[in-house]
# Entry
Amino acid sequence: MKHEKRLFKFAAPAAWLLVSRVAGAQQAPAAAPPDLKPAVSNGTGHEISEPKPTGDANPGQREDTARSPTPSDVQAATVAAPPAAVTSPEIAAPIPPVFAPTPVASIPSAAPPSAPLFSNKLAIGKDGWLQVGALLQGWFDTQWKSQLPPGISYRSTLASFRARRAEIKLAGDIVHDVASFMVSFDPASTFKYNQTNYTVTNGAVASPTANTPAAQTISTFAPPGNTAALKLLWITLKSPYIEASIGQFKYPVSFEGQTSSAELLFPERAYSSRYFGDIYDMGLRLEKKFDWVKYQVFLLNGSGQNQLDSNLQKDLVLRVEVTPVDGLLIGATGLSSIGQRTTQATTKDNIEFFGRLNTSGILVQGELLWGEKGQTATGIERTKAAGRYATVGYTIAGKLQPVVRYGYLNTDKTVTLGQNSSYALFSPFGVATDEVRSYEVGLNYYLQGNELKLQAAYGYFDFDNIPSLQEFTFAAQAAF
# Structure
């Protein structure tokens, strides 16, 4: 009994110390070694430590028992050693991806930019390319005119669907940055020939309207105007300061006339643009576009679209466009016929000023044009013409664009207004007058820019001595 009491006397303090140590270890977790990563779960309810990057004497050891790092632990953590094989089934269990470090090989690299599904250029020759484009326009157009002189009241209406444009364009480089080419044609411009009656007297054609007892009437077919399908055609040689082209071009007078038909704000150009420009001619062109200025010099036949010249006279044109700030363009054009000015009735002198402002959805565009036509011989009065237009538009949300346009054209200012003999507009427009004022409103809907858009426009055209004309046009366009 005495020995039991003596044993209890020494064992009780030791037991108390052991219990205190165990209780303290469960209440406060031990600090991890300086080079060990925090423990993570292995999906089995246990926590494991990832292998030490610098090497560990036993990387597969479980950290179930909480303890403070010893000097030997710290020393072992700083000594590089090959990791030991993992033998514990629990430790070998896969680490969930959300916690596990991602291997370098499995990190996805940045995806390369997506290439177009199809290339828009085709290789040609040894060092060239070809690009195909088109402009397709379908119209529904209705026109009506009214005349209310004393005792007469009538109204005539014409409504028709029309393939307005079907232009096919081929363009490219023959030798990259050295020589290029362009050709476009429009099958929609080939109209049906009209039947024309002529009166023949003694075997000779007298006139289409002569009616005498001895006359004989014959019928033939004649084109309603220029029906050539060829529009643009040129071959260009390039250099840093000049590009020289020979072929057929858009007539360089009128800014709107030069603008691509795919980019028009109304289905049709203004009367003044169509009278002074919007035609084609063959010749030579020198041009170059720099950062803020573009110049063009033309030497043209002056005979019209795809036509041989019938004289030695040529039309010389100088055109300059300046872009002082983004969104603002201003320019001027001057044309003068050179050679045989006193003998050729086609002698022309034209001048034009134009401008365009396009910023923050607001678009303002306009032109002023003047011209004289006819030989310059003494005692012969030349025909004087003047035209202008102004267009204002605003784009809403990049899709919807209401536009308004006012235009004026007088093709024969030397003739007193109202005289029936003044029929200068008849040839290009099919109306027997020399003066017109136009008031137009339109709405454009851009499904995908000019590549796919719808246009609707109403115009009131006030002529000086014939019934006024009203017109509504709906147009659908696809272009690329």
